[in-house]
Input
Amino acid sequence: MLQVKNLAASYGAAPVLRGVSLDVEPGSVTAVIGVNGSGKSTLLRAISGLVPKVAGEVILDGVSVARKKPHEMARLGVAHCLEGRRVFPFMTVLENLEIAGYGSKAPIEEGLHKAFELFPILKQRKKIAAGKLSGGELQMLCVAQTLVKDCRYILIDELTAGVSPLVSQSMGQVVKELSRSGIGILWAEQNAEVALEWSDFCFLLQLGEVVLHGKSEDLMADDLVKREYLGIS
Output
């Protein structure tokens, strides 16, 4: 299990996370929702080591990994799918995947097979420059990059940003399918409707603090979530 306990982080003197605690179980999807500035991206970055932690613990399978650097977390099986579609635009889809799989313990062929099995469109476009892909295809490529790392946990940041509602639903299905393979997913997402529909558990962040958490189906019925995040009066 991937556990976060009383995690605090800041940018300079400005606190962003204030004592966040949550668990990510293998084979499940844990969503983190909240408006821009609530601390969702910072939470994922603090877990993966991209943002320094002020206080708290990150525990992987009972062992503290709070002081691990990003490349060390990746080697331990925790992959981070960053917001903003971070790819090499002038390199092909296949080249992007091969670079992402560099240093993986498993043969690159296994990772590519998993990636292309989940995203057949990427196999069809593997010789195309990544910069020529559509927005939805770029998101698929970003997720596929984590699969070639032979990861056990994936941190996914704003998967549906800038894509159509139809693609958003498709990406939600992808996240769920990944969890069925045994991977634990921590998904930070502003689109609360999609996140709640395709996740098992959900945490609502406001100003860096968890204000609600529980099973996603229960949060969908919560008055605050319905009013503020689903637009249901």
Q: What stands out?
A: The two ends are 37 Å apart (CA to CA). The domain at 1-77+153-166+184-233 is CATH 3.40.50.300 (Rossmann fold).
